[in-house]
Amino acid sequence: MARPRMLDSMTIAQLEGLISSRRTRISQLERERRKVQSRLDSIDRQIEQLGGSSGRGGRGGGGGGGRARNEMSLVAAMEKVLNGSGKPMRVGDISDAVLRSGYRTNSANFRGIVNQALIKDKRFTSASRGMYQLKK
């Protein structure tokens, strides 16, 4: 990557001054971030005490935007549902049954994901249009 022309004309002392001022600004911003984060953590605790969801995402939070974790994979959950049914099921019914079994997802299009898994995985076969069963 090419260096900006401005840096070519600066002396070592000027560059060191620039680095120093940037480090100082970074320290200021990090202190400010810690204060704001502390305030947000306090607000999250108050919300949780009232029975609400804190809405915390990635950083040490629980829920709200993070990836849902399940004890078994989606394919295993679908296999269990179809095995319990004993007959072919529609994609929508399979996705509903998987969710009723306790599978958690944040997907806006969970039915589409179930459909793709049914198409791709060799454990399932199409009984007729839109109907799937376990491969015998």
Query: Strands of the largest sheet, in order across it?
Result: 1-3-2
User: Which regions contain 5 or more consecutive residues with pLDDT less than 50?
Assistant: 58-63
Q: Count the beta strands.
A: 3
The percentage helix is 55-70%
- Radius of gyration over all CA atoms, rounded: 27 Å
Q: TL;DR?
A:
This protein is mainly α and 136 residues long.
Relevant terms:
136 residues; mainly alpha; 2 domains; three-stranded antiparallel β-sheet; 5 helices; 3 strands; 55% helix
Description:
This protein is 55% helix and 8% strand. The termini are far apart. Residues 58-63 have low confidence and may be disordered. The protein is mainly α and 136 residues long. It has five helices and three strands, in the order αααβααββ. Strands 1-3-2 form a three-stranded antiparallel beta sheet. The protein is elongated, with a radius of gyration of 27 Å. It has helices at residues 5-8, 12-49, 74-85, 91-100, 110-120, and strands at residues 89-90, 124-128, 131-134. It folds into two domains: 1-66; 74-134.
